[in-house]
């Protein structure tokens, strides 16, 4: 075997080892995204389980607020359906974006429900409602932390998949860009809150 052949074999071996390493890194990072989403999913399920209880307590006091209560239930069901789809494909941009939109609708409906709670002092004083609201607040905080971890994992994956020369492996094996979960999606949501006294 001549020097050229030995050098060619060494270069080929280095390329193969690099390719295997790059592919395995992308798989590992994609799996980290899936694991991060699983942590979000646990908290979302907890939230989805708490919301019907909260609605039921509010229904006892504010039966004529039926439209608000139905909106919360409908938004919860849509968000749960979007989470089910995203659970199957946590690195898919479309599924994660749909979940973010559904979560925004749920947050708006929950905001209207909390406004109803504020309008009824006897509802606001109800022990069951206070406990459920406290659990919901705790769950929302956990969702926020899990969302941050998910977004960090997504950033690491996207960086790895887009940087040269790993992007060659990513495009060759179908590693697509993953979407981050955003807390806000419109300029109106990002606007500062106006407080009028």
Characterization of the model:
The protein is mainly alpha-helical and 197 residues long. It is 81% helix and 0% strand. Helix 1 packs antiparallel against helix 2, helix 1 packs antiparallel against helix 5 and helix 2 packs antiparallel against helix 3. The longest helix has 59 residues. The N and C termini lie far apart (87 Å).
List keywords for this structure.
197 residues; single chain; disordered C terminus; mainly alpha
- Low-confidence stretches are 192-197
Overall pLDDT? 89
Decide which structural class fits the backbone: mainly alpha
Question: What percent strand?
Answer: under 5%
Using only CA atoms, what is the Rg?
24 Å
Total number of helical segments?
7
Give a short account of the largest sheet.
none
Shape: rod-shaped
String of helices and strands:
HHHHHHH
Could you tell me how far the N terminus lies from the C terminus, measured between alpha carbons in angstroms? 87 Å
Per DSSP E runs of 2 or more residues, the count of β-strands stands at 0
State the share of residues found in helices, binned by percent: over 70%
